[in-house]
Write a structure and sequence with these properties.
Blueprint: E1 15-30, E2 33-49, E3 58-76, E4 79-101, E5 104-114, E6 119-128
Antiparallel strand pairs: 1-2, 2-3, 3-4, 4-5, 5-6
Length: 132
């Protein structure tokens, strides 16, 4: 006779919500001309945490929405053109995390953002939970 073990899967407990604030910029100079673009983003993401046997390695996939505040500037000495736009972007990604304490995790993830200017980011860091 064996022991049956029940596991709840596919519940909202497997989904974690997070917010993020990002900044990205790029500038180019050539032959006296100058061009730059900047993106400040504010968004929210939902991450689905996969069930694994080891609590020290937690993989996840996620998606989210973000507001992107773009500013573009281009010109030559004496003539400058600039524009700003606010766009909605879609984030797709995933990664892994490992708990350091009950309220702190180390993470490494990859995200692809689809907006007027598509972006690919690789990040590693520390995240803090505000509730358990």
């Amino acid at each position: 006779m064996g022991l049956a073990r029940s596991r709840t899967s596919g519940t909202w407990r497997d989904v974690r919500l997070s917010s993020h604030l990002g900044y990205w910029s790029k500038s180019e100079n050539a032959f006296g001309a100058e061009a730059s673009v900047r993106d400040i983003s504010l968004g929210a993401r939902a991450r689905y945490m996969f069930h694994v046997s080891s609590p020290t390695f937690q993989p996840y996939v996620g998606t989210g929405l973000g507001l992107h505040f773009f500013h573009m500037k281009a010109g030559v000495p004496g003539f400058i053109v600039q524009d700003s736009a606010t766009k909605l972007g879609l984030d797709l990604g995933g990664g892994v995390l490992t708990p350091v304490s009950p309220m702190t995790d180390l993470f490494a993830d990859l995200w692809y953002t689809v907006a007027d200017i598509n972006q690919f980011s690789m990040k590693a860091g520390v995240s803090f939970r505000i509730n358990r």
